[in-house]
């Protein structure tokens, strides 16, 4: 009986020792490609102006501009934008929202390869429906432009292998 368990353990150990970890550079490259894909999807939405001066009152929960982003801050901002996107009723945002979720997973994988640990983003527990419903078009434009700017900043930061 013990010999069987020992053999199973040794076989498992042998299999695990042969498996190579995904290189950090590969994860980082995949993350960059996905960011570029999301930016392309945002640009592809027909009603998105290339430069927007839209202002919507009540959207003060949108993340502000950050010049230096660590992996933890990137994750928090992605969570915030993800919570906003899933509350906007536009069908245009479904694929972007799915891509954002995949981007969060890649970012978490990149962070774990560097020994970083994330905590749940604070704030923004629930969005006020009246703010989002009052002017859906303007809200969508403002949120997507903010997300696009954040993703472009994130892309630049990933060039320098950010820390936790």
TL;DR of this structure?
The protein has about 160 residues and is mainly α. It contains six helices and no strands. Helix 2 (about 25-45) runs antiparallel to helix 4 (about 95-115), helix 3 runs antiparallel to helix 4 and helix 3 (about 70-85) packs antiparallel against helix 6 (about 135-160).
Provide the structure class. mainly alpha
**Distance between termini?**
46 Å
What percentage of amino acids are in beta strands?
Answer: under 5%
Largest sheet: none
Count all strands and give the number.
Answer: 0
Query: What's the mean pLDDT score?
Result: 75
What is the global morphology?
A: globular
Helix proportion range: 55-70%
List unreliable stretches of 5+ residues.
Answer: none
- The total count of helices amounts to 6
What is the chain-wise order of helices and strands? HHHHHH
Radius of gyration: 20 Å
Description of the molecule:
The protein has 164 residues and is mainly alpha-helical. The protein contains 6 helices and no strands. The longest helix has 23 residues, at 136-158. 19% of the residues are buried.
Keywords:
mainly alpha, 164 residues, 6 helices
Topology:
Layout: H1 2-18, H2 24-44, H3 71-85, H4 94-113, H5 129-134, H6 136-158
